[in-house]
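Protein in question passed on here:
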Amino acid sequence: MPPTVFAGGEAGAWEVESIDPVIGPSLPMVPRLAVFEDSAGAGNLDAAWMLRGRTSNSRYTRRDEQETLSARQTGLGRPEATRAALIPITKSHAWWALAQDERRELFEETSHHIAIGMQYLPAVARRLYHGRDLDEPFDFLTWFEYVPRDAPAFEELVSRLRATPEWDYVEREVDIRLAR
């Protein structure tokens, strides 16, 4: 499966409302964001930055969690979901030095990442893209879409996740807010 490309520049369906560094350096401000489901479409684009990521298997979810997420999640691209956020994240070397079961323990049993996220479904649709295996500057590209009336719920969601022990392992995070 080809990677999805998020291209910040002069063109794209999404207007960039803000780009805020949460931890570490930011990305340059741009007026628009284009999203290409395959990298071929981004080839001729003049962009200030491009971030690539690939969807993958759910690495930290158990079967019951995966089934519940699938049942509650709404699809991306709903016409009424005119707000979005792209939040690229890089985790520390200490995170990646942990064994898979230790990361799962921090991710869910300690930080309750999945349980927190489920509380905001179906209002906030989301998709995770992996960039680490593509040698990208961000390990994860988290994409969220929501209806404007659900903006307070989205703010609460990200605030709660950032307050968990898992976030002690984040060394770079940029919060990009979008509208269409």
